[in-house]
Design brief:
- The protein is α/β, with parallel strands linked by helices and 313 residues long.
- The protein is built from 14 helices and ten strands.
- The chain is globular.
- The model has no long low-confidence stretch (mean pLDDT 96).
Amino acid sequence: MSRAFIFPGQGAQTIGMGKALAEAYPAARAVFDEVDEALGEALSALIWEGDQDDLTLTRNAQPALMATSLAALRALEAEGVTLDAARFVAGHSLGEYSALAAAGALSIADAARLLRTRGAAMQEAVPVGVGAMAAILGLDLAAVRDVAEAAAEGQVCQAANDNDPGQVVVSGHAAAVERAIHLAKERGAKRAMLLPVSAPFHCALMAPAAKVMEEALAQVELSAPQVPLVANVLAESVSDPVQIRQLLVSQITGSVRWRESVMFMAQQGVTETWEIGAGKALSGMVRRIDREIAVRNVGAPDDVRAAAEALNG
């Protein structure tokens, strides 16, 4: 069986995530300690015992989700499952940094600092209330692109996340996104609704954040991943560190082509995905993209042991 390890993005964060892993596996606890040290604060205390609203802040959610994913991966390794079990790694938006850290291309400390910078830069790129995002359900990508183009009216409105065949997210100026919601409903969308996000991610309004990340990424060491990365903006596999660095910058303003990424992995023979870390959102998307792909979630000690037994048994 050919499998891919996939890593969740923003929205999967919950208070208490990863705590059971840290209690059961010293190697998982060490990940949270490393992230705390890299950031110079007890992010783990916020993750396990803090306020959900504080955790949901972009600057906190991004490194917190990466830490939880890498803790789950270290727990898998403690049970004898190595990265050799995966043919590809991929992540949704910030999950791309988790994937790169998992594949040894980035250190955990650098990934944590980059995601803190990324989260803050994305938050600060657009004043609160100026931008918005909306999920359009029941229209395909081409139809949503037409809606976004018609709704823009001189403002920014783009298809930001192509998540699965029935879910595309638009991002841009708040007024344009509101127009897109109404247009989408007129054109047959099952549902179209604003998302509870603090900024319009993955659109041209994020250009200031892309500039910040270009400078930040230039300061860190990036190696070739041990397993090829299926990049968000290409929906193809890459291994060249120079190209990966450029793609991480492009990703800030570019679309997350998740549906196409899963289709690419299926075309390359992937028959199973393991969602490493918090939540099950990506597994749901994978099921809707290709029902032939088996899914497994690895976010708690029982999940880790079951995955190891399935692989080794």
